[in-house]
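Lab notes, practical 5.
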Amino acid sequence: MSWKNVFSHQFSPVVKCTVIGCLTTIISLVLITMSIVYLSGEEHKKIELLQKILKSSMNKTWLDFLTVMTIIVSSLWMIFSGSLIIGVLKNYIGFVLSYFVYGIFVVIAFNLCALLLLLHQHWIIAVTEIILSLVYIRALVTIYNVYDLMQRGKIINNNKQNLLEDSI
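Output from the prediction step:
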């Protein structure tokens, strides 16, 4: 028995989507908190830290813009994660689809950022972003499977969260 078979039979797709929604909510909260802490820090220390990490000089205005964009994207991610959890638990197909569409947007943005980082010779950060986007694509495949099952009427969301058997 392979690992894929062990994990796929252990949890229902509804539980997997709920866990994905909770994890992405936690990740977005961490990103928002880190961005707010960065914005509230001293100017000199912030610029030195990022210049050390990225090994290049950056404008303070550009760094603040990137931080605010991180807060906006993470806030939207948290909202859509909540919609995923509500959609799966209450059987609202549109909420699950909205998270899936936003997830596609996030993957495209991650890959574009990775390409831009590759152009600027930041290989480690770019490879890390590509690996993270591949992991997130796997989560999106699970979410799409749940969306497809919900659309076909195969998922009943009661307290047991069971899948109906195929009648074909």
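Observations recorded by the TA: Residues 32 and 71 are 5 Å apart (CA to CA). The first helix runs from residue 3 to 10.
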